[in-house]
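Class prep. Sample record?

___
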Amino acid sequence: MLTRGVILVMAAFFTFFPAAKAQPVPQSIYDFKVDGLTGGTIDFSAFKGKKILIVNTASHCTYTPQYEQLEALYKKYKDRLVVVGFPSNNFFFEERGSNKEIAEFCKKNYGVSFPMAAKISVKGRKQAPIYRWLTDERYNHFKSTSVKWNFQKYLLDETGKLVAVFYPNTPPDAPEVIKAIEQL
């Protein structure tokens, strides 16, 4: 049985430390605005009518050369596809640099011109909201996944619906990726 003193202590605790309010779950990819790698904001609502290929990236990974293929896709399909890179340091410290260092690396080594977001976490307790949306079927209405490694790819159609997930070992120019991009 709770005593009056215990009840008062509990009431005081919950007054000073209220439960965190749940953040509203975005209904659409177009609800997201994220910090850009070199400043500014990437507003996903600007991509309506185009396919979106979202990729978590890293500068010191076996798959880092995929930047070149991602840039080629971005240029080839610029009228109907946008590639958005999300640097992350979730896998064996393969993205150790600052946002400025990452931007310089991508430009110097791969000529990256597609939008790059500021470095985020793509898994775990600090998972960025956009990756929570991408990886959880309750939000994306496609399927639940986990990010296996750097350069995992999420393809959204022209209406913002998640339609495909390509694991890191699938190159951006693989036939299945090209087919999904070219599908109407």
